[in-house]
Design a protein that fits this description.
Cofactor: Mg(2+)
Helix content: 40-55%
Distance between the termini: 29 Å
CATH architecture of the largest domain: 2-Layer Sandwich
InterPro entries: Thg1_C_dom, tRNAHis_GuaTrfase_cat, tRNAHis_GuaTrfase_Thg1, tRNAHis_GuaTrfase_Thg1_sf
CATH class of the largest domain: Alpha Beta
CATH superfamily of the largest domain: tRNA(His) guanylyltransferase (Thg1)
Mean pLDDT: 92
CATH topology of the largest domain: Alpha-Beta Plaits
Radius of gyration: 26 Å
Shape: globular
Low-confidence stretches: none
Family: Belongs to the tRNA(His) guanylyltransferase family.
GO molecular function, one term: tRNA guanylyltransferase activity
Strand content: 15-25%
Keywords: GTP-binding, Magnesium, Metal-binding, Nucleotide-binding, Nucleotidyltransferase, Nucleus, Transferase, tRNA processing
Strand order of the largest sheet: 6-5-2-3-1-4-7
Length: 519
């Protein structure tokens, strides 16, 4: 990020490192997935294809990030456990949560057609994320036991509930029948009324799914004489176990013991409140402007693999803009956003109560929705180009106490846009002229704005005449009001249209023209 007089705003960024020796668990949970399941007509109480899609996403993540050694999931929930020695993204909670949730969301949207080939995804899914800091292996053991117990309790209740509904009961009647019933009573109801032996239901429904990595021998290539050359490679393995927090299961997998430690005893009673006390959470300061800034993860490689135009690919920028528009349409508390390259900043209104102002929830939901929207919108901008692998974004939340400082933050990002774009325009002009990348970097080292403009002039490029989206980035906001004619009379009505403009947001004129954005 470039130096400027606005750079002081970085001092408002707060580090959120998870200290050793805490074990890191990232828990994700589908946002409004009951509605998502209804809209996409998932089978009740369990849709095996939907569960296998979740498992495929979890497997992909473990194969992508070696620091994650175990995961457990059921329904629309998944927990990812990092090895105890991890230094993944310097153990920064916001980075870890946002990356896992973002990639999971992208994979979910990418792999949808593998599991639902006859069903269109009607809108982007999104997930909440949080970090659990397990102070010891014993806390992790209790956490896993709690999650699996939750799986059993919820699945048994839902199985009973939907059997009652299918038999003709209303949802309210089914709820009334099940109210206060215990495990044994639910089992009797299923067996006596519907002939269902709960213990005979598929293990995945009753026990959830575990994913961990194994070393499998695979043929890497063939030698000249046709002999196969074998290598060991990491591969995700999905298993179902009745007691994942038991010693028999856990200690029976040496890779888990090596990465996290063994379980000394089998557990008795579980206390969910005790586990929740290890939740790594911070509420953002009230009456401050919240900014959620997201950045593409390893987007330099992503751009090369997908052959984006250099120095700017207008289709890629418009794809990013379409995702930002979708975020403002989905989340009414987001009032303004500014984007450049693979980065976007979202401003929430000052008095926002969104997600109870919990940093991890806000960051994860926005980055998740942005990521799945990116995948869903890809074909609208790259009709002839396949998405070769799922993108991911990291995010963080920053609070700014005044409108002036918030505007300085946005000015900082726009100054950064100009400086980086001018440099990149020069760099790629030099490379396209025959210079090596090292030579281009050497030529540009220490140059100022005027000197870069002179270099560009040598190639017949007037920087100030280049596309405004490249030079000034994109501002996304709602129209403040539109004049509507009704029965021959003019009436002012508040519009809800989200618009994208490429304009100077450093100058006062933009904010005077749109006074209600930061009102």
């Amino acid at each position: 990020m470039a130096n400027s007089k606005y750079e002081y705003v970085k001092s408002f960024e707060v580090e959120d490192e998870i200290m050793f020796p805490n074990l890191i668990v990232v828990q994700i949970d589908g946002r409004h997935f009951r509605r998502f399941s209804e809209v996409h007509e998932f089978e009740r109480p369990n849709d095996e294809k939907a569960l296998n899609l979740m498992n495929a996403c979890a497997t992909f993540i473990l194969e992508e990030y070696p620091d994650i050694v175990f995961s457990y999931g059921f329904s629309d929930k998944y927990s990812f456990v990092f090895k105890k020695t991890t230094r993944f993204y310097q153990r920064r909670a916001s980075k870890i949560i946002s990356l896992i949730v973002s990639l999971f969301s992208s994979i979910y949207a990418t792999k949808w057609k593998e599991f639902f080939p006859q069903k269109e995804m009607r809108y982007p899914p999104s997930f909440h994320g949080r970090v659990i800091c397990c102070a010891s292996i014993e806390v992790l053991q209790e956490y896993l036991a709690w999650r699996q117990k939750d799986c059993h309790v919820n699945n048994q209740h839902n199985t009973c509930f939907w059997k009652l509904v299918e038999s003709g009961k209303t949802e309210m009647e089914a709820q009334a029948i099940l109210k206060g019933t215990q495990k044994q009573e639910k089992n009797e109801l299923l067996f006596q009324q519907f002939g269902v032996n709960y213990k005979k239901l598929p293990e995945m429904f009753r026990q959830g799914s575990c994913v961990f990595m194994t070393q499998e021998e695979d043929i890497a290539k063939y030698s000249e004489d046709g002999t196969p050359v074998k290598r060991f490679r990491r591969k995700g393995k999905i298993v179902h176990s009745e007691n994942i927090a038991g010693r028999n299961f856990w200690n029976g997998h040496q890779s888990l013991v090596n990465a996290l430690g063994g379980f000394a005893v089998d557990l008795g009673k579980i206390s969910p409140d005790y586990i929740r006390s290890f939740l790594f959470e911070s509420k953002l300061m009230p009456s401050t402007w919240i900014v959620i800034r997201i950045d593409g993860c390893h987007f330099h490689r992503f751009c090369e693999v997908h052959e984006f135009e250099k120095p700017n690919d207008e289709r890629a920028l418009n794809l990013m803009n379409s995702c930002a528009v979708a975020v403002l349409q989905e989340f009414q508390d987001v009032i303004f956003s500014y984007g450049v390259s693979d980065e976007y900043s979202f401003v929430l209104k000052k008095d926002s109560k969104f997600c109870q102002r919990q940093a991890s929830n806000i960051v994860s939901v926005i980055v998740s929705f942005f990521s799945s929207t990116y995948v869903m919108n890809w074909k609208s901008f790259f009709q002839q180009k396949e998405l070769k692998y799922p993108p991911s974004f990291d995010g963080r939340a920053i609070c700014y106490p005044s409108t002036e400082i918030l505007r300085d933050y946005l000015s900082w990002r726009q100054v950064d846009c100009h400086i980086n774009n001018q440099y990149n325009t020069c760099f790629w002009a030099l490379v396209k002229s025959g210079k090596s990348k090292s030579e281009a970097q050497h030529i540009l080292k220490g140059t100022q704005t005027r000197e870069k403009n002179e270099i560009l002039a040598q190639f017949g490029i007037d920087y100030n005449s280049s596309s405004v989206i490249f030079r000034q980035g994109s501002s996304v906001f709602r129209e403040e009001g539109i004049l509507i004619q009704e029965d021959g009379e003019s009436t002012e009505k508040l519009g809800n249209k989200v618009t994208v403009e490429h304009c100077n947001i450093i100058e006062q004129s933009f904010w005077k023209a749109h006074p209600t954005i930061l009102a």
